[in-house]
Amino acid sequence: MTRIDFHTNVPDKIAYTCRLVRKARTANCQIVLLTSDGPEMAALDQALWTFSELDFLPHVPLSDPHANSTPIILTEDDQAELPHYEVLVNLSGRTPAHFARFERMVEIVTRDEAETLAGRERYRFYQQRGYPLQHFTADKA
Question: For 56, which DSSP code?
Answer without folding.
Answer: -
